[in-house]
Amino acid sequence: MEIVLVGLNHRTAPVEVRERVSFTAEQSRKAAEELRARGILQETLVLSTCNRSEIYGVPPESAHECAPGLSSFLSEFHAVRPDVLGVSLYHHYDRAAVRHLFRVSAGLDSMLLGEAEILGQVREAYRYAHENGATGPVLNRLFQGALEVGKRVRSETELGTRPMSVASAGVKLAERIFGKMNERSALVLGAGAISEQVIGQLRDRGIARLFIMNRSRERAEELAIRFGGKVVGWGEWETALTLPDVVVSSVASEEPVLRREMLQAAMSARGNRALFLMDLGLPRNIEASAADLYNTYVYNLDDLKEIVEQNRNARESEVPRAETIVDEHIGKFLSWQASVELVGLVDALRARLREERAAFIQARMDSMNHLGAAERARIESLMDELLEKLLLEPAERLRGEKELRRKIQNVEALRDLFLPHREKP
What we know:
Order of helices and strands: EHHEEHHEHHHHEHEHEHEHEEHHHHH
């Protein structure tokens, strides 16, 4: 029942690396299947967002022995050289892995402290993995606990009263370039959750004109009706890029949606009127070299650092309260984990004692020829009754007393004490 986590995030890897190892939903499913088929993991869940790519798993044996295989798998799956990827990866095991996930779900490990989107992303990753049969009892319990942590932090601390998001940070950055939005126009590329949040932020700031472009026109029209915008047909770049002052893009795409030559032509048609582009996609939606164009301001996820620091300074006082909730749920999960393992330990101990009892009787009975078959059977029965009595009460207490389960968390020490030189069940 050991847990292993291998991944990278905004602290350990720049966007150029993160975009190379991001997972689509289909890639997450495929990776989980391959990891289980190869025997690297028994349970698997991939969490991939704009700021992290992480694989959580339950290995068949040792978590520490499994981690190098996971690192190699990531490198192979995404065709990234191990020397490029290795410096960005972190490895967490058992309690550290549980703590990491719970802090992620609480918004404590995000680029934006208290980030609004992450809880929904964790929920969606768990739902998808569960529906595809990739999770099992351990990861099910772990991620259910993580979702509970996230909900409590948002309801019981100030981190949830005014949650910061990547969308709001991007719009704040646009305001630094153009000032108030009430005299500006904006084009939003994409119609997913982040794009919807961007549109809401722009409307809250009084954007004068709003244009929406999405591969699915139906979804774009739905948002246009809700927020009072206008739909531009997907791919109508010559028209679309001459309209806005601000372009915000959050599109799922393996290749850049906006290339340098497209923007160069658009800037010429605009008379080089200033254009702000916020790239919230991972992989990036806007070709990086477009930033070299005159009067074109291109920003990506890693360019939000100053706003991130302001956000963190304003919310730092709430971190201890959130960490207390995290610690409480870590204890609950580890107690559950210990109780499950202890029940298995009791069963293994019962089996060993029966073996020892059989060997003991065999050795002693040979010298007790005066005993009849009925008497020997009676002695064996009494010894079985004694063994069951010795084991029954501890087993029942483990199942019924939460406080006892909380206290006993180092099952390996008990296993080594009572079952030395034996394989784990």
